[in-house]
Amino acid sequence: MKQLLVIARNSCGWPNLTKLKNGQVLCTYFNAPSHGLIEGDLVCSISDKNGRNWKKLSVVAKKPKGGNRIHLAVGMAHNGDILCFSSGFFVKDEKIVGFSGHWLSRSRDRGKTWVSESNPVIPRGIESTIPFGRIIQFAPNLLAYSSYRLRGKDNRSETWMIVSENDGLTWTKKSRFGARDSNESTLCKLKSGQIIAASRTQSDHHVKLCELSKFGDRWRERGQLTLPMQHPADLTVLSDKCVLLTYGIRNRGMMGIGVRISIDAGKTWEAPWVIHQFGDLAKDIGYPSTVLLDKEGSLLTAFYTDFEPSIKKKPDSYRVLAKYWSLQDWLQPKIKLAIFDGKHLRL
């Protein structure tokens, strides 16, 4: 059984996975072979109920004239709608010449068709920010996503969590986190209801962990999760106390996809390991997104690369790939006993 499949060719990516209620997985991504410097749309592909047999499905956010849609935050509302916040740039001669707006796309038919709002109701000051990661459910009718902005000559970065109180119809609240050194951030709601975020820093591009207080009124930082140039990250809840971190390793000569696991709801983290390596010729990789496929710990991680050594035909072209792997194959016996009850996760 193949463990590495191609979701899309000639696509730079920023893939974002959403597991649907029927077991299928939706992957949303940028459909052009450039790191955002040419025109292109956000599109989606869909798998079967096992996360395999991918096929292209639809255009999520169509590019504006002379521009692209490249950044994204994706998730599901309580009513089953799939939501995608996106932004992008106007480009000319492979140079960025302007910001192309902060949009919201909505699908009511599991990604087959989408309706885009070029002026969604969001808090003032968020219109020129860049969405990233997942849209999460964290209470009845409450949704949230993160968005960031780079500011000033020193390239200072700011990140907000934006909240909807009516299941995604309007977005009226925001809270800033990351101590002005935070950009691409993935939100995650733990089984306890606690909200955490894995946030890329601008200073040396490591990932740090941020946590929202139980009363939802302030954020605090919980420490560094990766080394410099290892970013950005995704968080996947596996069970009551078990959280998975997947992230890009973008250090030259070490390009790969890294993983860490916490078995105490993010308080401490086990030593990292690497589930995929791209080799010395890769220059642009990563942005992993991971979903849990079953109770046995089978996982699907999507990412992109400009070089994949295991592909003989045109290894040096942009692709969005899907890696199928089992958590049980990577864990030390002590950790496996702590989170598995026989063959199944302790959910």
Top keywords for this entry?
347 residues; mainly beta; 26 strands; 2% helix
Summarize the structure.
Helices cover 2% and strands 51% of the residues. The protein contains 1 helix and 26 strands. The protein has one helix at residues 333-339; strands at 4-9, 13-19, 25-30, 42-46, 55-61, 71-76, 82-92, 95-107, 115-117, 130-139, 142-151, 156-164, 173-177, 185-189, 195-200, 207-212, 219-224, 230-237, 243-249, 256-262, 273-277, 285-292, 298-305, 319-326, 340-341, 344-345.
Question: Overview of this structure, please?
Answer:
It is built from 1 helix and 26 strands. It is mainly β. It has an 8-stranded mixed beta sheet with strand order 9-8-7-6-10-11-12-13, with no helix packed on it. Strands 1-24-23-22 form a 4-stranded antiparallel beta sheet, with no helix packed on it. The chain has a 4-stranded antiparallel beta sheet with strand order 2-3-4-5, with no helix packed on it. The chain is globular, with a radius of gyration of 19 Å.
